[in-house]
Design goal:
Elements (H helix, E strand, L loop, with lengths): L6 E2 L1 E4 L17 H14 L3 E4 L1 E2 L6 E2 L2 H4 L3 H7 L3 E4 L9 H11 L3 E5 L3 E2 L17 H7 L4 E2 L3 H12 L4 E6 L2 H12 L7 E7 L9 H15 L4 E7 L4 H10 L3 E4 L6 E3 L2 E2 L3 H14 L3 E2 L2 H8 L9 H5 L1
Parallel strand pairs: 1-16, 2-3, 2-13, 3-6, 6-7, 7-10, 10-11, 11-12, 12-13
Antiparallel strand pairs: 4-5, 8-9, 14-15
Helix pairs in contact: 1-3, 1-10, 4-6, 7-8
Length: 317
């Protein structure tokens, strides 16, 4: 199949745990708004919906399974999209907290950060003139002295516990070494292809948004795994989102957009919804003669177990 005619998977990360409410009035915070935006994003063309939860009162990130349960089953009922639950949570959550809902749901897919790292947006605090909620300023500024922890033992625990139930992973690689960390677990026999490698560019603490970095990640993954053993995908943080994901598709990869990664649609224009970003990248890709993968096609490409084997009822208990 030629590169121009292959199917491209669009992932949408709906809310995340990094941006705070003051950064965009359109960031979904409540279960109802996350549900609505996720469903609209799926209808716009996202085959994979990547989900975090927030306290409905003030938008603070939360790992509470009860809050996840207020919107995840509804999204699954309303769409055929692949439900992808974070195991990253936020830098302030323990591993046990981050795993609380995935353990109950046993989803088709979970995100998995492939290493411990500095992860910060603290310079953005200097640009903020007001804060909507009292927790936000300390949360953003405090990232300067926070580390996201995912040790080899942590990663192994996630792979074993969730992999036992057929969950596969969006391997989030923020640096070149994260690919080698993944290769280590492949050598250990803990994960098998096809791998879904999400290369992340533009986060302070990880790789910068230089286009050359994408080439290095792509060719290194080719050497480590073989191109036919993995699906390459890219997310670009902030203003780098659309240029980098477009380049990723041209290089034979897949794309991720969403308000978790950028609150903007274009320079100086905030995205009013996740669906707007999905619709924009879909239009760009289709103008370039790429076809957009359906959820069923994404499941086949990634070797997923199917929504019928997800424990939605058990996770409501």
């Amino acid at each position: 199949m030629s590169e121009a005619s292959r199917k491209v998977i669009i992932s949408c990360a709906v809310t995340g745990a990094t941006h705070v409410p003051s950064m965009s009035e359109y960031l979904p915070l409540t279960p109802a708004s996350i549900r609505e935006q996720a469903i609209d994003a799926a209808r716009a063309g996202a085959a994979i919906i990547h989900l975090h939860a927030r306290h409905p009162e003030d938008g603070r990130p939360t790992p509470d399974p009860a809050i996840f349960a207020e919107f995840v089953p509804d999204i699954a009922q309303a769409t055929d999209a692949v439900i992808n639950i974070t195991t990253g949570g936020s830098t302030r959550m323990t591993l046990e907290e981050r795993l609380a809902y995935p353990r109950l749901l046993k989803p088709e897919m979970c995100s998995l950060n492939m290493g411990s790292m500095n992860f910060s947006i603290h310079p953005l605090a200097q640009k903020m003139t007001s804060w909507r909620y009292g927790w936000e300023k300390d949360f953003v500024e405090g990232m300067e002295d926070m580390i996201f922890r995912n040790t080899f033992r942590d990663i192994k625990k996630i792979m074993l516990e969730l992999g036992e139930h057929g969950t596969r992973f969006e391997f989030e690689c923020y640096d070149l070494g994260h690919l080698y960390n993944l290769a280590h677990f492949v050598d250990e026999g803990l994960v098998k292809p096809p791998f879904f490698i999400q290369s992340v560019f533009g986060i302070l603490g990880g790789m910068g948004p230089d286009p050359e970095n994408m080439s290095v990640m792509r060719t290194t993954a080719d050497r480590l795994f073989g191109r036919d053993q993995y699906q390459f995908s890219v997310l670009g943080a902030g203003r780098h989102q659309m240029p980098l994901v477009t380049m990723a598709a041209i290089m034979g990869g897949n794309v991720r957009v969403g308000l978790e990664d950028s609150v903007y649609l274009s320079k100086g224009v905030k995205a009013e919804s996740n669906a707007q970003q999905v619709a924009k990248i879909r239009r760009i890709l289709e103008e370039l003669s790429f076809e957009i993968a359906t959820p069923a096609e994404a499941r086949a490409m990634l070797g997923l177990k199917g929504a019928g084997k997800v424990s939605f009822e058990a996770a409501l208990a």
